[in-house]
Amino acid sequence: MSRATRAFKVLISHPNVPAPALELLRSRGAETVICQSVPPSREEILRKVPGVDAIYWAHYQPLNAAILDAAGSQLRCVSTMSSGIDFVDIPEFQRRGIPLGHTPGVVRNSVADLAIGLMIAAGRHFHAGRTEIERSQWKIEQIDWMMGQEIRDSVIGFFGFGGISQAIAKRLQCWDVAKIIYHTRTRKENDGDFKAEHVSFEQLLQESDFLVVAAPLTNETREKFNGKAFDLMKRSSVFVNVARGGLVNQTDLHDALTTGTIFAAGLDVTTPEPLPANSPLLKLPNCVILPHMGTQTMKTTIEMSLLAANNILNAIEGQPMIRPAY
Ligand SMILES: O=C(O)C(=O)CO
Questions:
Q1: Residues 6+ positions from 231 with CB-CB distance below 8 Å
Q2: What's 39's DSSP letter?
Q3: Which of 35, 169, 192, 312 has its Cα between 20 and 30 A from that of 59?
Q4: How many CA atoms lie within 13 A of 105 on its CB side?
């Protein structure tokens, strides 16, 4: 039987939060105040948030002092329904001592699957191939047409070696890769589980055949992948980003892809999001772009929604959050 809790109010910032999460919150005493606008409207949130005990933030708009002020001093906790929290003013939460949760961990499998999809799609010209069919330019009679890069015998590099990178590395154990390398500030103690080697940022750039970015966006990582970085990469390399668009200088990436500095890119994340339909990146034959859908599976979305709900319930019941963000 679920634990009974004194009634409390939770603002739910999006109308499509999966029902199991809402049911869980309600079964433990929550009155849910659900915002109805899609995309979420700041005006509606600011109108509905005053007086709530908790905020369930199910989208990526700035979560900052203005929202906390509007909520009021009775606010006890907040959880995002996301792994990344680059849109949250964390120092403001710390200053006020408001517990903040997020949902890493449960996202790793669906994002890892998608990252491998992007490695193959970009390395093997999925986008250009499709376009050539549409242009009636099917040239299979040319032996060197659509020559791509294989994962087999490749050096796979990761920028960041948390749950997502490790889930990709785990999947790649049976793909006959040459080597797995990664760059993080400090070596990960469990890297031996993946036969992965900690390397410098320069080595990562120079040695990777496929370079996958799966690290948080911070002041330190912002635009880490810029012209200088792409210049150090192999001309045959495939660059994949499943983290945040802000880690990449997109103009420099566009240049690297058009000048042949790198071979191809697969992006699930861009700046801005949504990417405008006239973005020059969309015109490139060697760039596969997806609309930030790494966690868009039913299973993962439900797991994320339940984790966010449990973060809130724990805090309301005086327990540490399951996945605190600070
Ligand atoms: O959970 C997140 O932060 C995501 O970006 C999902 O793709």
A1: 256, 261
A2: S
A3: 169
A4: 13
Helix (H) / strand (E) containing 33:
strand 30-34
Q: What is the pLDDT of residues 179-196, one digit of tens each?
A: 999 999 999 999 999 999
Which is the CATH superfamily of the domain at 107-289? NAD(P)-binding Rossmann-like Domain (3.40.50.720)
d(C-alpha 2, C-alpha 218), whole Å: 38
- Domain spans of the chain? 8-103+298-317, 107-289
Assigned architecture for domain 8-103+298-317: 3-Layer(aba) Sandwich (3.40)
Q: Which atom of ligand 1 lies at the shortest distance from residue 304's CA?
A: 1
Q: Please tell me if the CB atom of residue 162 comes closer than 6 angstroms to any atom of ligand 1.
A: no
Mean pLDDT of 274-293: 98
Residues with active-site annotation: 292
CB of 82 within 6 A of ligand 1: the answer is yes
Mean pLDDT of all residues in 168-178: 97
- Asked whether the beta carbons of 258 and 229 are under 8 A apart, the reply is no
Assembly ipTM: 0.94
pLDDT in tens, 78-131: 999 999 999 999 999 999 999 999 999 999 999 999 999 999 999 999 999 999
Tokens 């409390």, residue located = 8
Spatial CA neighbour of 56 closest among 81, 35, 39, 83: 81
pLDDT band for 164, please (50, 70, 90 cuts): very high
Q: Assess contact for 193 and 221: CB atoms under 8 A.
A: no
In angstroms, the first-to-last Cα distance of the chain is: 31
For residue 6, how far is its CA from the centre of ligand 1 (angstroms)?
Answer: 32
- DSSP alpha helices (H): ranges in the chain? 19-27, 42-48, 65-71, 90-96, 108-123, 126-134, 163-172, 201-207, 227-232, 250-258, 298-316
Answer yes or no: are the C-beta atoms of 55 and 32 closer than 8 Å: no
Distance 166 CA to ligand 1 centre (A): 16
Paired tokens of 54: 């908790």
Tell me, using a 6 A CB cutoff, whether residue 295 lines ligand 1.
Answer: yes
